[in-house]
């Protein structure tokens, strides 16, 4: 089952050099989700050939412009593309008012439902579940209310026990029901439990998206053992004083969190515009946490 992240934007604060601010697409078995939506997100969705109408939900970390100024244009474009499926939007308090004001001002007619849920940035809560993923919030410490998102694959035993399927001579429909986690009833009235017809499920993967935040060990318990951790790295270590003041993280801050959380890999990003290349982030990160990766536009990482 596909579970991967496509990076659309990595800049902190503002777009420049044809690069945009925060935006990522999570693909869970062709169910798509957007994590943040910086200005220019639509252009990158086009560039990387993302099927926009497959986006089921948008998760906004906080209401600094570099994380959500791409939202209104995307919402009206969905309308132009004749979207019919509802769209879920999550974000801290204020996101509803923002979307309403923008849509009212331009008298937009979308033609589909927008379902906005404002997140509680102080406690971790499960906010969204569908057939593919479950999403919970990660409270973060930043200058305004902010939360990250922990995305887990939904536990679903999809490996069928071929011997048993053969033994009971099941139909395609019955096999589909078992895959969906439903028991089936044979004509004689016997019930077959889906658990008995499947093999032990493979480990479900998890992705933690943590931006923007100052170094904060309290998130470690929430993201413990994630396969991939995206943690903002606005600055290199020589800017640690400024990172503290501006409530951002350095590369070593992020690497330390990855070590404490026992993450499988660390994905860096949200790089300050003061850096012309990101090579130094890689070297510094690897010193503390070897599986450190740089993010760049167009990168696809299987989780
Ligand atoms: Zn911010």
First-residue to last-residue Cα separation: 11 Å
Beta fraction: 25-35%
Structural class: alpha/beta
Counting DSSP H or I runs of 4 or more residues, the number of helices is 9
Computed over alpha carbons, the radius of gyration is 21 Å
How do the SSEs run, as a string of H and E? EEEHEHEHEEEEHHEEEHEHHEHEE
| Integer average pLDDT | 94
Brief characterization of the structure:
The protein is α/β, with parallel strands linked by helices. The strands form three sheets. It has a seven-stranded mixed β-sheet.
How does this model look, in words?
The chain is an alpha/beta fold and 303 residues long. The protein contains nine helices and 16 strands. A seven-stranded mixed sheet has the order 6-5-4-3-2-1-16. Helix 9 links the parallel strand 14 (265-267) and strand 15. Helix 8 packs parallel to helix 9 (279-288). The N and C termini lie close together (11 Å). The chain binds zinc ion.
């Amino acid at each position: 089952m596909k579970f991967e992240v496509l990076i659309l934007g990595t800049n902190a604060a503002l777009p420049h050099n044809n690069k945009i601010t925060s935006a990522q697409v999570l693909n869970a078995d062709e169910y798509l989700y957007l994590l943040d939506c910086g200005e220019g997100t639509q252009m990158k969705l086009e560039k990387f050939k993302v099927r926009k109408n497959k986006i089921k939900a948008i998760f906004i970390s906080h209401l600094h412009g570099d994380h959500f100024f791409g939202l209104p244009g995307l919402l009206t474009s969905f309308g132009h593309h004749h979207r019919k499926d509802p769209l879920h939007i999550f974000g801290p308090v204020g996101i509803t008012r923002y979307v309403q004001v923008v849509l009212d001002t331009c008298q937009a007619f979308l033609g589909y439902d927008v379902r906005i849920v404002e997140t509680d940035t102080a406690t971790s809560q499960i906010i969204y579940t569908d057939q593919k993923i479950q999403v919970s919030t990660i409270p973060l410490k930043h200058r305004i209310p902010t939360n990250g998102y922990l995305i887990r694959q939904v536990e679903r035993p999809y490996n069928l026990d071929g011997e048993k399927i053969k033994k009971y001579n099941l139909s395609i429909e019955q096999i589909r029901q078992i895959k969906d986690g439903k028991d089936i009833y044979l004509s004689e009235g016997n019930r077959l439990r889906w658990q008995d017809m499947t093999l032990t499920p493979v480990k479900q993967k998890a992705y933690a998206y943590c931006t923007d935040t100052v170094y904060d060990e309290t998130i470690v318990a929430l993201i413990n053992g994630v396969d991939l951790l995206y943690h903002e790295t606005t600055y290199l270590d020589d800017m640690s004083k400024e990172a503290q003041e501006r409530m951002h993280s350095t590369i070593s801050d992020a690497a330390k969190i990855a070590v404490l959380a026992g993450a499988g890999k660390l994905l860096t990003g949200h790089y300050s515009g003061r850096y012309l290349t990101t090579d130094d982030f890689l070297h510094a990160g690897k010193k503390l946490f070897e599986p450190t990766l740089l993010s760049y536009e167009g990168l696809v990482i299987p989780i």
